[in-house]
Every structure is written in C-alpha cells, then in structure tokens.
Design brief:
With about 950 residues, this protein is of the alpha/beta class. The protein is about 45% helix and about 15% strand. Strands 17, 18, 21, 22, 23, 24, 25, 26 and 27 form a nine-stranded parallel sheet that branches. The protein has an eight-stranded parallel beta barrel with strand order 6-7-8-9-10-12-14-15, surrounded by six helices. Strands 1-2-3-5-4 form a five-stranded mixed barrel. Strand 25, helix 30 and strand 26 form a beta-alpha-beta unit. Helix 5 packs parallel to helix 6, helix 20 crosses helix 22 and helix 32 crosses helix 36. The longest helix is centred in the first third of the chain and has 26 residues. The two termini are about 50 Å apart.
Length: about 950
C-alpha cells in the first residue's frame, strides 16, 4: 500500500489513519498499539504495523527525500512512454483504452486481449498497463520476504515438486525458534517490514505451534505476517488472526473445476474457494492467483482465473508460470511462453487498477532478470525475496531448479533493489536501516545529477544498493572510512566465496550461458577457480556467450595519439611529467590530418583519440578542433567514420561539447579502484583526485554521451578486486542511467621508458589469470563490448579473440606522429610497449582464416543505435540482424580498397560463407545487392 518509509499521521477517523509522505497522503488501518495524530509510523499492506521516534523518522526522511522524487521522475518517464502507434488493431486499442479509463471489461474483451499476438497489440497492452500501474500506485513496488519453513506436505498435487509422492526429495522442518530468528534478523538487520511464512500443508504445525511463532514475532518486531500454509478450518485461522497474522497467500491454481479435479486427489475445488472466502471474511488481506501454462488450459480459463481472483477482494495477485517438475506426473508438459504470462499480468492490471501484482520467483527462474523486468513493465508491482536459510532453500523444490542459481540473501536483496531502481521504483515493505549520524546525508546522483562531484558519495549509492544491501545510505564523502567499507565488502565477498564447491561453480557457469549476467558473489566464485576442468568449462561458456551476442565478428580500430605532454606523474606511464627520457609533442592541425590519412590508408574507419592531460596545451578547444579535422579528412574512398575519445575527465559542460562534436564512445579507465593503491601510483597532478576521475563517466552520461567505456590497468592491484569493482561501477551506471558501459577495456601494465613501476608491476597478472578474468567479464556483463589492445602478444590475443574480446586495436602507435614516422613502435617515445606488432592486414588475414569476420562497421553509431537503444536491440538478439550484414559490407569495402591478392581471396571466401548465415532472406538479398553496388564503386553502405 505505502512506502516502507515513515509517514506522519495527520488524522484518525473510524480507525483509519491519514498519513503524509512528502506531501502525498495515503490511508491505513490502525493495527498497532495506541496511535495518535502526529506520530510517525510504518504502514504495510494497508495496516499500520509500528511507530518510531520523531528524530529517527526525520533522519530517515532526510536521507530519502531526494531519492524519493528522483526515482519517481524516472518511473514517470518510463511509464508515460506509451506509443499509440497506428500498428495496433483498432478493436484491441479500443478495449485497452476502455480498461485504461477504468471501465469494467467484459469477459469477451478480456479474452480478446489474451488472444492478441501482434507485436503492436502487445506493446500497447503492456505499456498501457504499466501506465495504469504508475498512476494508481505511483512508483511503489512491494518487496516482501518469504520464509519456506517446511517442505512436508500431505497433498499430492500433480504439478508440485514437494508433493507427498516425491520420494526423491529430502524433507525438512524448521523449528519455531529458527523461524523466529530468521524473521528477527531480516527485520532488524536487513530492514524487512513484511514476511510470508510458507510451507507445504504440514499438520505438524498445529494451531498452538503457529500461534506461538506468530506471537513471538509480533512481540519482537513490528512486521506484517502473511501465512501461506494451505487449507485450515476457520477456527484455526481466526485464532491465528487474533495472534497477529494479517495476510493469507493461497492460490487456487486454476478456476476450471474439471482441470482442478484432474490435478488434485486430496484437495477439493469448492473447499479451496470456501477457505479463501472464509479468510477474507475474517479480515485477512488475501493474496491469490493461478498457475499459467497447465496442460489443457485455455485462454478462456486464464480470463476466468483473473475474474475468480478478483472475487476475493484480493490485495495481491499471484500469477506464475507452470514449470514442469521431473518428479511429478506432469514432467513432460510443455513450458509456457513469456507473453502468455505478461498478458495475464497486463489484463489483470487493466481489470483491477488497485491490486498489487506479484512478479513470481518462478517467472524469474524461467525467464531470468529480463523476464522480471518485462513483468514489472507490464503492470507488475510486487516481488518477494527468499529468506529461507541456505541449508533448506534448495529443498523447497516446488519446481525444478528453484533456488539453485540464487545468490546468498544479501545478493538476492541487492539484485532485487538494483532491478527496481533501474525502473525508478521505490522498494516498499523493505525498510531502511540507517547507521550513525554521519550516514544520514542526502543522496547525490541521478539522471541529470551524476555523482555530483564526489565519487565516494556516488559509489556509496551503488554500494548501498548492491554491496551493503540497504536502501540508499550514502556515507559522508569526507569520511575516510568510506573506502574501507567498499574494500572490506569486496574482501568479504572474496572470503566467503573462497571455498565454493565445484558444483556451485558449475551451476554459475550454466546460468551464465543463459545471458543473464553474474552477481558479484557469482563473479567472485569464478575468479577464485583454479580447477583446470572448470576453467575449460568457463572458457567454453565465454565462447558460447560471445558468439550468441556478437557472432564471429571482431571490430577493428586504431588509437590516434595527439599529445605526449602530461601534468600528471603516474608511476606506470611513459608520459608521466617527471620522465626526462621521452620526447614531448603536441600535434598541429596539419600533423593530425597526416596521421589520420595514414590510418585511413591502413583501412581503418574507427579511431580512438588519445591525449595526455594538459589543459593548457590540449584542452577542450584543442580536442574539438582535432575531432573536426579527423572527420573531415578523406583519402580516395576512405574516411574515419567514428571517433571515440580517451582524454582526461571533463566537466559536464565540456562533455556536452564532446557530444556536439560527434564523438562515439567516451572512454576512461579508473586504473585502479583500490584507493590506497590509487593514491600511491598517482602522487601528483589532477589525476591524483580519485573522486573526480571516478565520477567522470556519470558526468559524461549526464551530458548526453550514452556510450561510455570503462576499465582498469591490471597489475596495479589484485585483479579479483578490480574485476568486482568494475562490476559494481557498471551496475551503478545501469541503475542511475538505465544502461551500463558500452565497452570495458582490459589493459595490463607493459614496460614504458622512464616508468620503473611498469617494469615490475606490484600485482602482475599471468597470462592464465588474464584469460580467466577476460572470460569472466564476458559472462558477468555479457552485452558489453570487451576491448583488447596491442599491449598483449599475438599468441595470447589470438586465444582471447575466442573467449571474450569483441573489439581489437591493430598496428598501434602509442606516441604522437607514430603513423607518419614510418618506423616500428618506439619505446622511447611511446606511452607503453606494444606486444602484438602485426600489421592490420596480417591481423585480418589471421582472424579471417580463424573463422572470424573482421568488421569496420560504424552503422549503429550513425543510425542512433547507441546507449539504451543499442541494448534494447542487443539483449533479445535483434542486433544480429544488422551486425552480420554490416560487418560483411565493411569487410568487402576493406578488401576492395586495401586488400592484397591473397587476402582478397581469403576474404571473399569468408564473405561467401557468411552470406548464408544471414537468416532473414530479405536482408540477405539486400546484402547481396549492396555487395554488387560496391563492386561498381559505391561505398559506405550499411543497414
């Protein structure tokens, strides 16, 4: 009903309190103690469940007031993005409009919506349902804890894995003290305000035992207790209500009496409905619904399910997909598609604007985090987090695989909060745990705010959500304990995952193949893998994930160094200010044009502009001018079509100028996220400001640059720590801006003249560990490009092409004027040493014979498929429709203009093979036509 944020009671009338939340009022039943006007209270499920002191309430409200409105603004932007396109069927659009306006839908109208299949109809249905959800519930999304305290069951439901006939299942019961302890810990330490206590129908838990558990919970905590214990007589439920229980979760599974009878031999359809009506009449909040996808179930049955659920004055609707369990009679049943589930949720929302609709754990298990996100965007507004102790959780196996891919409890909380924040939702029924007074600072950072000048504050926002597993709890940015908290959390993750089982690692690798990404805990487990067989499985999975998303493409580019002057003194870098052995140079406009021409003659279409930090000689004016020169330079048929930029951190206004100059990706490496190491290796210069550097990517995105690239310099500190820190930073960007980094770079320290630390890195990373971390990054953040530079030697690069890298530099020079100098890479001039010195043509010949498709494509950037829009294409796999034909066309252009005879022969054979890998026959034919046009002299053709 309302936020798990304290509200002030404005009025009480007939036991109904009016409560203020930042100027918005809600009503709740007085259900806890002696509540008076002026009190600050927590309310859950429409009930006041506890009070708190005024100073404590003010502290929490102060911390929430900024985040509250920022999240709401994001939710409003997403929910009101209803595209009333002409593609939707007019009859369907009329029904959806009727439901949106609150008019009662008929059965036939609901059935028409359930039978909709066109993409236009479904998009309109889902978007309208989400808009209705937002207008009625604001951005409140209930988050309850659920404790599954027994898998004993006296029934034999044909769809359920804990049916009494499943003899392969290990059975358990939690005793009363265990149950109470879990609730107290979750309420006091994790901030939960509402709990579902769930079990099979287990008569061991008598009325008196349950009363004892409920009373103790209510005595110790002010929480909402919801029971999911099956059918009991009404005297039992009345006594449990008197003891303090206030909700009942009981699904009827199907409204079709005949189907119900076939699925149950120990339960009676009318008995089930009688129990639901009885608990409603006692005064319980009712949560109910059905299984979607049962054998012989029809669209009409699903409509009746919605209508039956509504007949109980339902507070929360629970519609989840049926997942066949191998230990049941329905083991061979087909699995339902996600759109059927989404349609039930959306139609329910149009039919009942007021109800809460839960996104079930079964839906997330079957369709992953993207499935949960789609359900929330189709009208859902409630989730549950499993708090069952680890030793029991996987045994509550009502469907196969339940709990097997879950993180620990803190990981599940962080994942749920992350998802909700990314959609602008405020988690409710999950309270806020605040620490000391210095913890009570306002959140900085949101879309349009960035990190607001303090990385410690900003990263705290993400650590609060992802690491410390609380709702936002920013620390004082001047507090030196911040970095210790961050470092300690990562160390704790590494410590508690150090001895993870072989089976656990295998399950994580299997999950990663589903392109769901990895949590920090899962990532930590894989980072500590040393078993050779597991590593081979890891590499195989990384190869599979990479090919699923990127196919066999490798995008090629080259760095273009403009300057070697720098005011910083980074101990690992050849450009550092105190290095007296290196030549210093700032390219003139004419020299920039000559370097660009050399890159074009080498076949490149993408350039990465690189400059040392020296605002006096090469500030934003110089960078803007250089970008203009690069774009305007042409040689015969060739030109640079995408300029990415790697320069020192800028202000928001300066980033806006980069955006206006037409850059592609803004790239910046944190070098190391470990603050003590950062300070040690950056002793002086602007770069010594850890905060300003860490906040740069957020400022860039605030300025409208939606493709950003991050990375670290591996070798400065423990690579395991750095990988986890990268993951947290990526999650933070996704939380704040709706999309994470476009690329992650993985440079290792290489020797540089005049930089002694580069010769003997403090935490050198072996080739084996380097391969492992690249593969893990591919699994952890699957849709993000991984950039591999020429720092690495050719043999290692060749292996990494298969297991993670998607973008590679070739024929690099790491000093200004290197391409026109006509010599090999010169370590006395360069920023670092080069490992792979092959020419661009030699690299292309190798990857072409190795089955890869060399790509110089810049189409996505030039057609606006960037940032979140790119991810919307990438995650469902739709980007493949463009990427393969575009890579073929850009490779053909290279062969025609720059390829030697032998390379042309290899390339043409590869193109002939790849043409038939284009599934869409229309695009295949169009690609063939464009290839013919290129033979006739046309260039720069793409989709």
């Amino acid at each position: 009903m309302c936020y798990a944020i304290p509200g002030k009671v404005l009025d009480i009338s007939n036991n109904i309190a009016t409560i203020d939340y930042f100027g918005e009022t809600k009503e709740a039943i007085v259900d806890a103690g002696n509540i008076r006007v002026g009190d600050y209270v927590f309310a859950q499920g429409g009930l006041i469940v506890g009070t708190l002191k005024e100073d404590e309430a003010h502290g929490i409200l102060e911390g929430w007031k900024e985040a509250f409105f920022k999240l709401r603004d994001r939710d409003e932007r997403l929910a009101e993005d209803v595209r009333l396109s002409g593609g939707a069927d007019p009859a369907i659009a009329r029904i959806i409009k009727k439901g949106e306006e609150g008019a009662a839908l008929t059965r036939d109208e609901m059935l028409a919506l359930m039978m909709s299949k066109s993409e236009e109809d479904l998009n309109l249905l889902y978007q309208t349902a989400n808009s209705v959800r937002r207008r009625r519930h604001r951005n409140s999304s209930c988050v309850h804890g659920i404790i599954e305290f027994s898998n004993m069951c006296k029934n034999d439901c044909a769809y359920c894995g804990i049916s009494r006939h499943n003899n392969s299942l290990t059975r358990y019961r939690m005793d009363a003290d265990e149950i109470v302890d879990v609730v107290i810990h979750a309420a006091e330490k994790l901030g939960f305000k509402a709990f579902v206590l769930q079990s099979g129908e287990d008569d061991y838990y008598t009325t008196s035992r349950l009363i004892g558990i409920i009373r103790k919970i209510k005595e110790m905590t002010g929480v909402l207790v919801i029971l999911s214990i099956g059918e009991r007589d009404m005297d039992c439920y009345k006594e449990l209500y008197d003891a303090g229980a206030r909700g009942i979760l009981m699904r009827f599974e199907t409204s079709n009496p005949n189907l119900y009878g076939r699925l149950h031999t120990t339960l009676n359809y009318e008995g089930r409905l009688r129990t639901l009506r009885g608990v409603r009449d006692i005064g319980y909040l009712v949560a109910t619904g059905s299984l979607i996808g049962l054998p012989a179930q029809r669209d009409g049955d699903l409509v009746e399910d919605i209508l039956l659920a509504s007949s109980f004055d339902t507070e929360m609707y629970s519609f989840g997909p049926f997942i066949p369990h191998p230990g049941t009679p329905l083991a061979s049943s087909a699995i339902i598609d996600i759109h059927t589930v989404l349609k039930v949720i959306a139609v329910t929302r149009l039919f009942n604007h007021d109800g809460n609709i839960v996104v079930t754990s079964a839906l997330e298990s079957l369709f992953g985090i993207e499935g949960a996100k789609k359900a929330l965007m189709a009208g859902g507004n409630s989730m549950m987090i499993d708090l069952t102790p680890e030793k029991y959780r996987r045994l509550y196996a009502i469907y196969p695989g339940k709990g097997e891919g879950d993180d620990d409890i803190q990981g599940r909380i962080s994942g749920t909060i992350s998802l909700l924040y990314s959609l602008g939702r405020a988690p409710t029924d999950l309270g806020i745990t605040w620490g000391t007074k210095e913890d009570e600072n306002q959140i900085k950072g949101s879309r349009g705010q960035g990190f607001k000048g303090s990385s410690e504050e900003a990263i705290t926002a993400s650590i609060s959500a992802f690491s410390l597993h609380l709702t936002p709890r920013p620390l004082d940015p001047l507090n030196p304990d911040f970095q210790k908290a961050f470092s300690d959390e990562i160390e704790r993750i590494l410590d508690r995952t150090h001895n993870a089982s072989h089976k656990k690692a295998e399950s994580i690798i299997a999950k990663a193949k589903q392109l769901k990404g990895l949590t920090p805990e899962e990532t930590a487990i894989l980072l500590q893998c040393e078993d050779k067989d597991l590593l081979e499985s890891l590499y195989s999975a990384a190869r599979e994930v990479k090919e699923s998303i990127y196919g066999k493409r490798l995008v090629l580019f080259a760095p273009l160094y403009l300057t070697s002057t720098c005011v910083n003194n980074c101990l690992y870098c050849g450009f550092r200010r105190e290095n007296q052995t290196i030549e210093r140079r700032v390219l003139t406009g004419d020299e920039i044009r000559l370097e660009t021409e050399a890159l074009i003659r080498d076949g490149h279409k993408r350039a990465l502009l690189v400059a040392g930090e020296d605002h006096r000689q090469c500030g934003i004016d110089y960078i803007e001018k250089a970008i203009g020169i690069i774009y305007s330079t042409k040689v015969d048929n060739g030109n640079i079509r995408r300029v990415n930029v790697n320069v020192a951190p800028l202000s928001v206004e300066e980033f806006k100028r980069l955006k206006s100059a037409g850059i592609g990706t803004y790239q910046l490496f944190q070098e190391t996220y470990h603050l003590p190491t950062y300070k040690q290796v950056h002793p002086s210069g602007p770069k010594s400001n850890y905060d300003y550097r860490l906040s740069a990517l957020s400022r860039a995105m605030e300025a409208g640059i939606d493709d950003v690239g991050m990375g670290v310099l591996f070798g400065l500190y423990d690579y395991k720590f750095e990988v986890l820190a990268i993951l947290y930073h990526a999650l933070h960007l996704e939380q704040e801006f709706g999309v994470g980094p476009h690329t992650i770079s993985v440079p290792r320290i290489e020797p540089a003249s005049g930089a002694p630390l580069s010769v003997n890195p403090p935490c050198a990373v072996s080739d084996e560990d380097f391969m492992k971390l690249v593969a893990i990054l591919r699994l952890a953040i699957p849709y993000t490009g991984i950039i591999l530079s020429t720092r690495e030697h050719a043999g290692l690069r060749n292996r990494l092409f298969h297991i993670g890298a998607s973008q590679i530099s070739t024929n690099s020079r790491t000093y200004p004027g290197g391409y026109t100098a006509g010599d090999d890479e010169n370590s006395s001039r360069g920023q670092f040493s080069i490992g792979d010195k092959r020419t661009t043509a030699e690299v292309i010949q190798h990857i072409s014979t190795d089955g890869f498709a060399p790509s110089f494509c810049t189409a996505c950037y030039r057609t606006g498929r960037t940032g979140q829009e790119f991810m919307e294409f990438a995650k469902p796999g739709d980007i493949q429709r463009f990427c393969l034909p575009n890579s073929i066309l850009s490779f053909k252009e290279y062969l025609l203009d720059y390829g030697g005879e032998e390379l042309r022969k290899i390339g043409e054979n590869l193109i002939d093979e790849q043409i038939f890998s284009i599934d869409d026959i229309k695009i295949r034919l169009a690609t063939l036509k464009k290839l013919e046009d290129m033979e006739k002299g046309k260039r720069d053709l793409y989709f």
